[in-house]
Amino acid sequence: MGLLEGKVVLVTGAAGGIGRECALIAAAQGAKVVVNDLGGSVKGGDAGDASAAQKTVDEIKKAGGEAVANSDSVSMKSGAENMIAQALDTFGGLHSIISPAGILRDGMFHKMPDEDWDAVLEVHLKGSYNITRAAINHFREKEEGNFVLFTSTSGLIGNIGQANYAAAKMGIAGLSRIIAMEGAAKNVRSNIIAPFAWTRMIATIPVKDETSAKRVERMKNAMRAEQVGNFAVALAAPSCTANGQIFAVRGNELVLFSQPRPVKSVARIDGWTPETILSHAFPAMEGGYTDLGATGAVFTWEPV
After folding, report:
1. Could you tell me if 200 and 42 are in contact, meaning their C-beta atoms sit under 8 angstroms apart?
2. What angle do helix axes 77-91 and 127-142 make, rounded to 10 degrees?
3. What tens digit of pLDDT does each residue of 41-95 get?
4. What is the DSSP letter of 181?
5. What angle do CA 124, 247, 99 make, to 5 degrees?
6. Model pTM greater than 0.90?
7. What residues does the Ketoreductase domain cover (predicted)?
8. When you count CB atoms within 10 A of the terminal residue's CB, does the N or C end of the chain come out lower?
9. Please, which residues have CB within 8 angstroms of residue 181's CB and are 6 or more apart in sequence?
10. Active site residue ranges
């Protein structure tokens, strides 16, 4: 008996990378899987290829599992609704959604075209909204269901050239938190993962210096998609109790992130003026400021 025996799982972006591994592992753990992938490019905006998802389905069936392909776009409300309907029509239920589907359109913020901002938020943030909104009432009615959504250290910590991606990924963190809070009484859970893994999306990030080249090489060798897939499937398991949490998977290292809470506060009985804020409040708080270091400045140790 697998961890997901008798369950139905929808995995988005499952033609390759993390999504594919999530689908394969979920099936190996006994789930019936709806394999979604538009089949488009990393940048999105193209027509896609309906056969992309089918390749993962064929792998699952070859291994003795049950799966069906779906090529709708998470960025479309109707597409998300079709995925949920397909799960219910084909397998008679839906218990978990694992949704790593995404695109990248990197660029410095002061040069970013509106269409690149819109496209990334449409797929990541609106896509996460569409897929959770389409399933939430089914989960609440059955009093069983969970979401495994995907954030990024680009949002949680920051990364130059990814303002659109970071904004979307931080939005997903807020979305997941509220779904978890509102769903707790109905046995509906939502958690998010910030993955470290070599995927075709990561492969598009330019390597501009030796430090970047070394980081990329580490990711290729030590941080793999199946490691993220194993964790995502564990979060989807009925025996998992985590809810409203932010995790990272970095090779064989699993990370629980803190969430925003007050760091320091200062008070003044007679109130503040702009002058006293500058002369007293800021100096008192600056020891608690978060620096502007990117992910590499936070995760300074080698992956396990």
Report:
1. yes
2. 40
3. 667 665 567 799 999 999 999 999 999 999 999 999 999 999 999 999 999 999 9
4. H
5. 30
6. yes
7. 7-201
8. N
9. 244
10. 165
